[in-house]
Amino acid sequence: MADYFLTVFDKSGKKLYDKSFSATDNSEAKEIGLNKLKELEFNEHTHRCVTADGKLVLFQR
């Protein structure tokens, strides 16, 4: 398991959501991130999901 970080921003750049979670690999992390965005209704906001060492897994502007 590895740690990932999901962050959502509003149009001004303010963080609306910033939480970590664990996943077995990047594919699972992307799926978890997309599900969380949908659950919180943030899928249309700017967001990113990165690994603990900063590798980008998911991004939407």
TrEMBL record:
Stored Pfam families:
YhzD
Q: What is this protein's record name?
A: YhzD-like protein
Gene source species: Oceanobacillus zhaokaii
